[in-house]
Specification:
- This protein is α/β, with parallel strands linked by helices.
- It contains 17 helices and 22 strands.
- 34% of the residues lie in helices and 16% in strands.
- The strands form nine sheets. The protein has a five-stranded parallel sheet with strand order 4-1-5-6-16, sandwiched between helices. It has a three-stranded mixed sheet with strand order 2-3-19. The protein has a two-stranded antiparallel ribbon with strand order 7-8.
- A hairpin with a 5-residue loop joins strand 7 and strand 8.
- The radius of gyration is 22 Å and the shape is globular.
């Protein structure tokens, strides 16, 4: 707590002296601070096949920096990454089944005597970068705790926080992309609750100012480049599965949740795909898709539906936090990369690369990995290019853009199947929740409990063939 108060005091001081930041930039010592996107966590795992092409690793190469260090995990990763297990035919369509690879990776360079240059921590929100520590001995001795696993793997020394390690590396240029997990939980859990899955704006204001202010205070001449938060309701995890189905006769029928029929204003998350294949949400089956809830006593019950009001609350909070990011950046002479606008443009209009148009479509768009949340290697390269553009514009440098052509042929997470019919296994969804938000108190260890109701008896009014709750 004392460390946090001290950092906050230093942050306030930094806001007053930010004008002294140097106009020139030294690219020789690059440090990346952030969450799962910075870490190259993809397909719901931390694995070398993605880490080798993290956007920080790509940037370091474009800067000409040697010796850029990451917490590399051997394939298939921790946890093992998702893969396309099989293609099955369902209702006359080819359906991809996505599940976890077998086995587990191991840390490759856990004994590195210095902190890693890439301090992206999957699951970390802004406050975690200021306060959490990790102990690699927990991994070495087999005392693995899901709530601390990523901190143990990445921070290791049981003494210093992520921001302290970042400052200790004496970077000359920093990228800080924080805040995504201050809103993402609402989307993946299907529950938008202030103070539970959404960080209050006032809280974020203090934490973010402390984070950026501390770096500016201790590294006054370093370049700091920050990113805004994309709209987490527009990622494939929340847009791939439609809130309706079509009958064999071509009739459009809306799915059923615990709170009643869905509408075009509602979303169904990727976590619902396996349940829908089992008949949940289909009118007439008596099976309802679970909707999330929260109780201060029992904790959070995840769901697979985001109602229109919840989508609005998440979008509002994303806007509030991005306003804070831009304000703090202006006060600390940090450069902003507006990933909210960039993601929106890509998802709306696509991204042209060598005659190929990339989109945000799940599996077929080329940008996102198998979990529908995180970019794959090609997506990381696109992100790196956006950082390069911002750095060159702000500092007058001539860092070359990344050649995206080699990433077009890698095919790390692209297929030609009909992604909208994908079966994202329930086990894969549950592991995603556990890894990204391990400290959220859950009402049930099973995470998702599909709701089954008896079909109404005569004399009761049915709702789409299912008895009213």
């Amino acid at each position: 707590m004392r460390d946090t108060r001290k950092l906050f005091a230093l942050a306030l001081a930094a806001l007053l002296v930010a004008g002294g930041a140097a106009a020139q930039v030294d690219l020789s010592r690059y440090v990346a601070l952030g969450d799962s996107v910075t870490a190259a966590y993809a397909s719901d795992g931390l694995a070398q096949l993605y880490q080798d092409h993290s956007f920080p690793a790509i940037l370091a190469g474009q800067f000409g920096m040697s010796g850029f260090q990451q917490p590399t995990i051997s394939n298939p990763g921790i946890p093992a990454v998702l893969e396309l297990k099989q293609l099955v035919v369902a209702n006359g369509q080819v359906v991809p089944v996505i599940a976890r690879k077998s086995g587990q990776g191991q840390p490759i360079n856990a004994t590195l005597p210095t902190p890693y240059n890439n301090l992206g921590i999957p699951g970390a929100n802004t406050n975690d970068l200021l306060t959490k520590k990790g102990n690699i001995q927990n991994i070495i001795t087999g005392q693995i705790n899901p709530a601390t696993l990523m901190y143990d793997l990445i921070l290791r020394d049981n003494t210093t926080t992520a921001v302290q390690q970042a400052i200790g590396l004496q970077g000359t240029i920093y990228t800080v992309w924080a805040g995504n997990n201050d809103v993402l939980g609402a989307a993946v859990y299907g529950v938008a609750i202030d103070g539970v899955t959404l960080t209050p704006a006032a809280t974020f204001q203090q934490q973010y100012a402390t984070l950026i202010g501390a770096i500016r205070q201790y590294r006054p001449n370093a370049a700091i480049v920050v990113g805004t938060i994309p709209d987490v309701t527009a990622i494939p995890f929340t847009t791939t599965v439609a809130p309706y189905i079509y009958t064999p006769q071509g009739q459009k029928v809306y799915l059923l949740g615990e709170a009643g029929p869905l509408t075009d204003n509602d979303r169904v998350t990727l976590g619902a795909s396996a349940l829908i294949q089992q008949g949940y949400g289909i009118p007439g089956t008596g099976k309802l898709l679970p909707e999330g809830s929260f109780s201060p006593t029992t904790g959070l019950t995840p769901g697979v539906i985001l109602r229109g009001a919840e989508l609005g609350a998440i979008a509002t909070r994303v806007g509030e936090l991005n306003t804070i990011i831009e304000s703090v950046a202006a006060a600390t002479a940090a450069t902003v990369v507006d990933f909210n606008a960039i993601y929106d443009d890509v998802l709306q209009n696509g991204y042209r690369v060598g005659g190929v148009t990339l989109t945000g479509a799940f599996l077929t768009g080329g940008i996102f990995s198998y979990d529908g949340v995180h970019p794959q290697t090609l997506g990381n390269a696109v992100i790196a290019n956006e950082f390069v553009k911002a750095i060159n514009a702000a500092y007058g440098t001539e860092v070359p853009l990344v050649n995206l052509r080699p990433y077009l042929t890698a095919g790390a997470a692209t297929t030609s199947v009909v992604a909208a019919q994908a079966i994202f296994t329930l086990e894969a969804y549950q592991q995603l929740l556990r890894t990204l938000f391990p400290e959220i108190k859950l009402a049930s260890p099973t995470l998702i409990r599909p709701v089954q109701r008896r079909v109404t008896s005569p004399g009761r009014q049915p709702v789409g063939g299912v008895a009213k709750p």
